[in-house]
Write a structure and sequence with these properties.
The structure is a single chain. The chain is an alpha/beta fold and about 350 residues long. It has one domain (about 25-360): Alkaline Phosphatase, subunit A (3-Layer(aba) Sandwich), CATH 3.40.720. About 40% of the residues lie in helices and about 10% in strands. The protein has 15 helices and ten strands. The chain has an eight-stranded mixed β-sheet with strand order 5-4-6-1-7-8-2-9, sandwiched between helices. Strands 3-10 form a two-stranded parallel sheet. Helix 5 crosses helix 6, helix 6 (about 80-90) packs across helix 14 (about 245-265) and helix 13 (about 235-240) packs antiparallel against helix 14 (about 245-265). The radius of gyration is 20 Å and the shape is globular. The structure holds zinc ion. Zinc ion (ZN) binds next to helix 13.
Length: about 350
Amino acid sequence: MKHLTAIILVALISWSVQAQPSLRTEHVILITLDGLRWQELFTGADLSLIGDEDFVGEPDILKHRFWNEDAMIRRIRLMPFFWSVIAEEGRIYGNRAHGSLVNLTNNFWFSYPGYNEILTGFIDDRITSNDKVDNPNVTVLEYINGLPEFRNSVAAFASWDVFPYIINEQRSGVPVNAGFRSAEGDLTDHERFLNEIQPQIPSPWTTVRFDAFTHHYAMEYLEKYAPRLLYISYGETDDFAHDGKYDQYLNSAAQTDAFINDIWTWVQSHAPYRNATTLIITTDHGRGTQPKDAWKSHGTEINGSDQIWFAVIGPDTTPMGEIKTGGQYYQNQIARTVAAFLGVEYTGEGKAGEAIEQVIGK
Ligand SMILES: [Zn+2]
């Protein structure tokens, strides 16, 4: 009997080794949209907010663009790339109406602890604010950048000016273009123009620039340097929400969807990215729903703002579209999943959440 068990065990092990697929992903682009609620992602614009003049400048214009009685049409109007290309060729997790649950494990439900959890795969109770303090933890970006095979092949672009600290750019050596920074080095014509107009277009915020700058700087970098791992952090959605501007929050969500479409269209039409690039898209936290103005905010006092979502599209992820089969995932699983797509075993010194095996090679 013991013998039989051993034989079965050996058979199982060799089967699982054989079943381990070799991955086609050579490049990963990790993308975050700051504080975009799963509610808008999965059901589009919110009726109670879209017509409220406290939150919307011109409700008729906004409704014309984003409203439909049917939530399935509404969400396509808001985020057409998600609900055409990713819904057909990738996967979208986090629709709680179908029992697909994605949550934070940190107990703060705001940005720095969230980005730390995304990028390191674990929580750190020392990170209790959004202050510009160098992250004591090594992110998956830093870890991968430290491997000989990936050296100088990791970069980050962000709208929020705290990212050089979250990524600890000094120690990590990962180049971070964040906040109101210009492109540096050998510039393309595009970068020169972006550098010229960025200070000419005043941002409504002192610590966050418009996402168009982040996006186009990142695209130029992508084209020039072909990084193996690129992180792009869009920020407008959260800031417009804090400002109570539901119209701008929706406009920004739609624009970021268009930016991601740009990225995907570009990678799928350029070697060496074509059919060799995985996009992983998520958010740092959710937002509230009740009382009515809770959508503006998040944090532990705002119920539900630990509820998030993620999406994956790439050559190693079998298309399943919107996940309707339930399941529970956590923000702390993203870092290890990013690494796994690149064939790297990252454990965050044993603290990182498990890789999301369901999306890798299956
Ligand atoms: Zn916020």
